[in-house]
Amino acid sequence: MWGSVVGDGRPQELPPVVSPEEKRATIRRVRLGHLSLADVSEELRADRDVVLEAVKQEGLSLEFASEELRADKEIVIQGVKKQGCSLKYADKGLRGDRDFMMEAVKHYGLALEYAS
Q1: Which of 44, 73, 75, 79 lies 20 to 30 A from 101 at CA?
Q2: In Å, what is the CA distance from 13 to each residue of 26, 27, 40, 90?
Q3: Which residues on neighbouring strands pair with residue 5, listed in sequence order?
Q4: pTM, entire model
């Protein structure tokens, strides 16, 4: 789909927009275990609400979250609470944050194994 025009007159592709209905349906299917984050669009992998629900259901879903959301402390901690080893998919900078890692250890005793 082509959207607006850039300064030199060439058409610019706009990112797809996820409808609120599609987002709600995705969250519902993820919550029920009928859909994995691995199977959704890049746009939904970058949606905080969708990813948060996915890691609450399956911590290892963090692997498929957008780079930005793999650096989101709340999302990563939720993944760690569900499956401690999901920490290996967290942003390296986050794994280097001492305070964050101490919080992760509270939920997964072996968390320091993933510290950077």
Answers
A1: 44
A2: 25, 27, 21, 30
A3: 11
A4: 0.84
